[in-house]
């Protein structure tokens, strides 16, 4: 009967503890902040349901010593101030802390009282413990067993196992607050590290406070590789099995084996040492065979702790392996720290209606036979999955009822008791319809005044929603309800106001609110005015136009007209006539314009083409250019014929004149010599001197041959005529007397001389139209 009552009492205590350990215990300490580690960081304490910091007023190494020892981090290296690890938030719980260094908790030290301070978070206190420079890592490692790594020169590195022994391991275990060394491991038993190998040939006596104080080759000096990484297993190693991280059957590591503790004399003081050692807060209960039976060794019995010890092996006991128990008496604990808060993630935060999604819940530690529960905050939706560290929840073909916030919780069932973790953070699932498709017809640039249509559609199977067509650049918005998966929007007689980019959206009403799809891609509506190519024609009202292979030939001086015309609904434009780099503009009248040229000149020669230009709603449009007409300006034939005729007549006159001259010359040659009067210079015996020029003698003989030639021409020897005029002044002349015989000889010689002289002149001056006449006086006898 007494046993039954005791079991009932134990059960009631367990139920009351389930609610108590969901929050951290008052006075619990943690190290946090930027760059913080297990054994260094901003000091924070839990009080009145929230975490708060400690002010650095009077903060020193004695205060830091209590924190480091409480956390199992060895002795303090420094007590930091001025928010060395960053500023905290929320409450500042303690100020003017005054520890002697022997207290088991910082709350036992002197201080102003919780929440009483004159500080800001810029004065948050922190610690750097000796354990901050050493850690145990690798596969299978725990807080007090693993591959030894030290921090040096801003990097973590391993220790080589050359000469590695228990003395070296003792220093590591003591530095980490893990009791004495049980084993010094080698050959990378806890896996190979990476990066630097800082120490080799370590030689500790076992009394050193830290590993770098021992003898070694120097940092970074070694002849090893990571296959020789050293490790430790410390005697103070404790774990909780069969439950959670902070509740379960107590087991300790000794002589290279795990073993349990007998429940004889097991009480809350013993449980307090275990919970503090595991950083699980304070003890809520010391249990007996609640978490199942262990196996192997039972290492301790009749454990007697005061509650202030740093490790269980420091408490009184019978000795390792000395007991009178069985595994039905295995001791356990329930600590105040609850199961760890799970993490939650979703493969896609925003999903389309009908899509499959998955949500994963996980915890940081491994437990057996736990249950993950996925809950929706706004409804009674709940799904469960079992798993040791994680579970995945698949939701197929989501609809609008799945939209909302989700959280995870982990639960552990032990001996009909359920331990639950806090709820995870929340993730949101937003259910939308699929992105609509959009198309425009006709595609591309459309003509002003044309009708166009825009089609919006979705691939989702949901029906009965509303399609919204919107324009990105203004407030244009049209809606259309549809019982199908598409809607057609007609825009008649488009103008420039309709230009722009358009998008579609699909809207569906859900249980609690409207669900909108994402916007579709955009389509652009571009409006233009299309003008036909104008026509061009050429006329000449006074028949001065002749079409030839090279173009239109216009007679110079004649008028011609170029007409441009177009077939267009936009009749308010104007035509531009381009030729030879010049432009002429005429407004369109009845879709045409005429360009008149009253007198064709050579500067009008060239290529002519037309362009039609019109302005619609402040925008100007221009047609394509017509094919050019080539205009050639030619000379009139009548002036040319007249000019040619005049030239011919002149040539004929010149020819007649030349013939007349030739005939006249020939006639002159045939006339008697008596008709030719010649004045000859005949050399005679007389010397005639002019003026004062001595030696220049000109001999002149005046001979009148007229009678003699005339007589000879008649065939009668007549007398010479005495029609002789005496010189006016004989003193001006000097005559030489000749005999009569010379008289008759001289005429003959003179005639011969004249004939010869005329023959030479004819040869040298045939082109000369003048005749050479020589005046010959009759030869008077010399008296």
From TrEMBL:
<feature type="domain" description="Ig-like">
    <location>
        <begin position="534"/>
        <end position="622"/>
    </location>
</feature>
<dbReference type="InterPro" id="IPR036772">
    <property type="entry name" value="SRCR-like_dom_sf"/>
</dbReference>
<feature type="disulfide bond">
    <location>
        <begin position="204"/>
        <end position="214"/>
    </location>
</feature>
<keyword id="KW-0393">Immunoglobulin domain</keyword>
<feature type="domain" description="Ig-like">
    <location>
        <begin position="340"/>
        <end position="424"/>
    </location>
</feature>
<feature type="compositionally biased region" description="Acidic residues">
    <location>
        <begin position="760"/>
        <end position="773"/>
    </location>
</feature>
<keyword id="KW-0812">Transmembrane</keyword>
<dbReference type="Pfam" id="PF13927">
    <property type="entry name" value="Ig_3"/>
</dbReference>
<dbReference type="InterPro" id="IPR001190">
    <property type="entry name" value="SRCR"/>
</dbReference>
<feature type="signal peptide">
    <location>
        <begin position="1"/>
        <end position="27"/>
    </location>
</feature>
<keyword id="KW-0472">Membrane</keyword>
<feature type="domain" description="SRCR">
    <location>
        <begin position="134"/>
        <end position="235"/>
    </location>
</feature>
<feature type="disulfide bond">
    <location>
        <begin position="305"/>
        <end position="315"/>
    </location>
</feature>
<protein>
    <recommendedName>
        <fullName>Deleted in malignant brain tumors 1 protein-like</fullName>
    </recommendedName>
</protein>
<feature type="disulfide bond">
    <location>
        <begin position="99"/>
        <end position="109"/>
    </location>
</feature>
<keyword id="KW-1133">Transmembrane helix</keyword>
<dbReference type="GO" id="GO:0031638">
    <property type="term" value="P:zymogen activation"/>
</dbReference>
<dbReference type="GO" id="GO:0005886">
    <property type="term" value="C:plasma membrane"/>
</dbReference>
<dbReference type="InterPro" id="IPR013783">
    <property type="entry name" value="Ig-like_fold"/>
</dbReference>
<feature type="region of interest" description="Disordered">
    <location>
        <begin position="757"/>
        <end position="783"/>
    </location>
</feature>
<keyword id="KW-1015">Disulfide bond</keyword>
<dbReference type="InterPro" id="IPR007110">
    <property type="entry name" value="Ig-like_dom"/>
</dbReference>
<dbReference type="InterPro" id="IPR003599">
    <property type="entry name" value="Ig_sub"/>
</dbReference>
<dbReference type="Pfam" id="PF00530">
    <property type="entry name" value="SRCR"/>
</dbReference>
<feature type="domain" description="SRCR">
    <location>
        <begin position="29"/>
        <end position="130"/>
    </location>
</feature>
<dbReference type="GO" id="GO:0004252">
    <property type="term" value="F:serine-type endopeptidase activity"/>
</dbReference>
<keyword id="KW-0677">Repeat</keyword>
<feature type="disulfide bond">
    <location>
        <begin position="173"/>
        <end position="234"/>
    </location>
</feature>
<dbReference type="InterPro" id="IPR003598">
    <property type="entry name" value="Ig_sub2"/>
</dbReference>
<feature type="disulfide bond">
    <location>
        <begin position="55"/>
        <end position="119"/>
    </location>
</feature>
<feature type="domain" description="SRCR">
    <location>
        <begin position="238"/>
        <end position="336"/>
    </location>
</feature>
<dbReference type="InterPro" id="IPR036179">
    <property type="entry name" value="Ig-like_dom_sf"/>
</dbReference>
<feature type="transmembrane region" description="Helical">
    <location>
        <begin position="640"/>
        <end position="663"/>
    </location>
</feature>
<keyword id="KW-0325">Glycoprotein</keyword>
<feature type="region of interest" description="Disordered">
    <location>
        <begin position="716"/>
        <end position="741"/>
    </location>
</feature>
<feature type="disulfide bond">
    <location>
        <begin position="68"/>
        <end position="129"/>
    </location>
</feature>
<keyword id="KW-0732">Signal</keyword>
<feature type="compositionally biased region" description="Acidic residues">
    <location>
        <begin position="719"/>
        <end position="732"/>
    </location>
</feature>
<feature type="domain" description="Ig-like">
    <location>
        <begin position="436"/>
        <end position="520"/>
    </location>
</feature>
<feature type="disulfide bond">
    <location>
        <begin position="160"/>
        <end position="224"/>
    </location>
</feature>
